[in-house]
Amino acid sequence: MKQLFQRLKNWLSSLSFRTGVIVLLCCIPFYILSFAQMALPISTQAKGILWVVLFGLAKTCQYGGLTILGVEGIKRLKAKFKKKSSNS
Question: Taking the model in full, what pTM does it have?
Answer without folding.
Answer: 0.77
